[in-house]
Amino acid sequence: MIGKIIGLSPVLAIIAAVSASGARDGGIYTDGDLSGCGRPANLSSSLPHLLTSSGMVRSYTVHLPANYAATQQYPVLVGYHGHPGIGLFLEVDARLDEFAPDQIVVYPDGVEQGWAGANYSRATVPQDLQFTADLLADLRARYCVDSARVYATGMSNGAGFVDVLACNDTVGGEFAAFAPVAGAYYTNARGPNDGCKPARDLTPILEFHGGADASVHYDGGEGEGGYEPPIADWLSWWAERNGCQTPPEQQDSFNDTVHHQTWTCRGVQGALQHYKVDPMSMSPWDSFHNGHFTDNQCRIIEHDWPSTEPNFSQVAAGDVPTHIQASEIMQAFFRNHTRPSAPGSKGNSSSPEPRSSSGGAHRLDTTKLAVIGAVTGAALVAHLV
Fold first, then answer.
1. Where is this protein localized, as stated in its record (predicted)?
2. Are 317 and 323 in contact (CB under 8 A)?
3. Pairing with 319, which of 72, 82, 133, 178 sits 20 to 30 Å away (CA)?
4. Gyration radius of the chain over CA positions
C-alpha cells in the first residue's frame, strides 16, 4: 500500500513522559557473556554486520555510544522495522540511537523486508527467533553488553515480532522489557493462551497505537497478514498473564487525544502501559499556518511512529506530528526494568526521574532528513504494515 507523500515542516510540540515505579524484587541477572568486553571497537556511527543463521545470511546495523569504552557494560536496544522495510527505515523513523545515546542500538533486517508471524512472512517464527538469539550472541562476542538490560521495540510487523519475542520462553527471556509500536499481533490474536508462553511471571510491556490506525485497526479485524486482535483485548490478555490489577489507571491529556493507561502488576506499578493516540481536532502545526488548516493537516496519528517532529512513517502515511515522542517515553520505561536473576522472578523496577524534552533536545538529523527526501522523492515510500 503506497502512502501519501507530504512536505516536511517544522513543528513546535511538547511531549508527555512516563514514570513507572515498583518495589525491587529479586537480584539482577549477572551471568551474561562478557567475552566482548575489552575488545577494541570501530566507533563509526553505523556498523553493518553479517552472520549466518538457520542457513541464511542475515544482516544488522549497530550504533555504539559516542563515548563507548570497551571495559564498560552497555544496555542493548534492538529495533525491528515494519513491512516492507529494512533496518535503515526504522533508524530514520524512530531515531532510537539519538534518544538512547548511552546504549548499543541495533537495527536488524528481516528476510525479504519482513518478520515472522504474518502470512506474507518469508521467514518462520523459529527462524527469526534463532536469528535474534544469534544476533545477541554475536553482539556479546563483539561488544561489552549488559545482559540484564536488553530491550526490544519495533513498528507494525516488527512490533508484532516483538510480541512473538515477549511470548517466547527461551529467546524472549533474553530481554528485560518490550515496547511495540502500532503492532500487528498476528500470532497472539485469539486469547491469553494463544501460543503465548512468556519466560517470566512478569513481562514489562509498553504499547503505542493510533486510535484511527487504518492499517492495523485499533478495534481489530482481518489485516494484511492475518487476523489482528482488538488492542483492548490484547492488553487485557497481557494484564492477565502479568497478574495485573484491573481496571488500569488512565490519564487523558492534550484535549482528550492522548490516553495513557497504567497497570500495577504483581506489585510493580507501570509494568504494563499503553498509549492510545486519537484524532486531533487541530494540527500541532497551527502556529506555523496562522490558524488556517486543510483537512489533511487536521487529521490524526495514523499508522506511524508517534513523534513530535516529522518522521519517516508520518511522511509515508501523509500524517502529521503528534503530542508525544514514543522514542523518549520508552527510554524512561526501559530504565525502570532489568532482567532478573531467576526465570520466575519479577525482575527489578526503579523510579528514576524521566527525562523531559526541550525545544532543541533532539533535532531532526540532516543526514536522516536527506534519506527521507531521497526515498520520498523517488516515490518508494510504502505505508509500513
1. Secreted
2. no
3. 178
4. 19
